[in-house]
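Let's see one such:

===
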Amino acid sequence: MEAPQVQPRILIAGAGIGGLTAALALKKLGFENVEVLEQTAVLKEVGAGIQLGPNAVKVLHHLGLGPALEAVAVAPLATKSRNWASGRTIRNFPLGQECAQRYGAPYLHVHRADLHNALIEAYGLGNVRLGKRVKTHAQDGGGVRVALESGEELRGDVLIAADGVHSVIRGELLEGREPRFTGLLAWRGMADAEKARHLGIERNVNAWWGPHRHFVNYYVSAGKRINWIGIVPAGEWRLESWSARGDKAEVLKEFDGWHPIVRGLIEATGDVFKWALYDRDPWPVWTQGRVTLLGDAAHPMVPFLSQGGAQSIEDGYVIALCLARLPHDPAAALQAYQDLRTERTARVQLGSREAGQMFHQTDPLKKLIRDVKFRWATLTNSQEKWRRVDWLYRYDCEAEVAARLGPAVAKAA
């Protein structure tokens, strides 16, 4: 594959899913001068599941990760939304072959560590600099300067901040715009599928909707584990940490009286974890000159559309495609990336908030209207169910970039 004639030096802060997607896409597009800086000394992902809509799976296929995903992912048959106590199906949305044919890629569930490992293997662990925490950054007409906490200084032509919701770089770029606490707490756990076999859990996204809270479970790790997440009012908890352990008895109390599958799955789990949920209001400016934001650093969102990881993956591919078309003008490439992504990610952020309100509905009349609408769509096989998500799953990164910047100079394998 022919590399761009101009080779800007690209610094990426953060080796999570979004940062690694950007790095791998740049590598596939022929960029050789990319440096990924990761603050942790050991590169690993947390033990949680992630849902990948067709929009994200298409990107990962473009980057050559299809076989790796096939070995570890689970393709659910449907999303089934159920009443929290009775288990009655409220909504049944197909996610099998019909979904894959409509959008050009399947809907998949993966363990975050499995996806992270696939990205690392494809990009190369040796290409990631570990234990490199960014302290500050600055830019001038000649490029970007990054100071690390170790005292080391690096220079580049582009800085991509993929360093999460509490991004140091975002804090400097957009001072005073701190993450918003949602008032919600997420419990999560991972159960061995064999230990939960007696519950008869279907190969679906099973979403249990209840007053002020909801619970979601699905298979990962080629069907060997069942990932679950329970969203509840946070009380006094404010810590946003994927590694904060909790008390299983506390989770069971939160879901007292819920369906036996929900409680049985919690009981079949070993360690449980909890973290406070933060997001931000959509903001139209992520870029200043040669510095830009990606993923949660740009648009953290609540998980109710299951698109946080998917939007980071889209970001990573779009920014790489923009830099491939404008390698001689990095600032213009970053501006194009911002212009292409802000409206879409804002829609996902706000849609995620709205979905959470719908899941947790307590008003009897509004809850009845919600349930009747979804059950009618299921019974009549209404096409409205597809039209409501076409905008989300049909998104094509390459087509969007080509429409703005013209045909590709180099195409990802």
Observations:
- The domain at 10-69+108-178+286-357+379-405 is CATH 3.50.50.60 (FAD/NAD(P)-binding domain).
- The two ends are 9 Å apart (CA to CA).
- The chain has a mean pLDDT of 91.
- The chain is about 35% helix and 25% strand.
